[in-house]
Amino acid sequence: MTEILNVGILALVITLFGLSLGFGLLRIQER
């Protein structure tokens, strides 16, 4: 149960980081 929770949190963090990184790259390209 704890392992599944840890994997879920890790996946969520990676997803959020990827989205923020992609959003940052898009904003840089707009300039």
From TrEMBL:
What Pfam families does this protein's entry cite? Answer: PetM
**What's the main place this protein lives?**
membrane
Subcellular localization, as worded in the UniProt entry: Membrane
Membrane-traversing stretches:
6-26
| Keywords linked to the UniProt accession | Electron transport, Membrane, Plastid, Transmembrane, Transmembrane helix, Transport
Top-level taxon of the source organism: Eukaryota
GO CC terms of this entry = cytochrome b6f complex; membrane
Stated membrane topology is:
Single-pass membrane protein
Q: What is this protein called?
A: Cytochrome b6f complex subunit VII
* Organism expressing this protein natively: Trachydiscus minutus
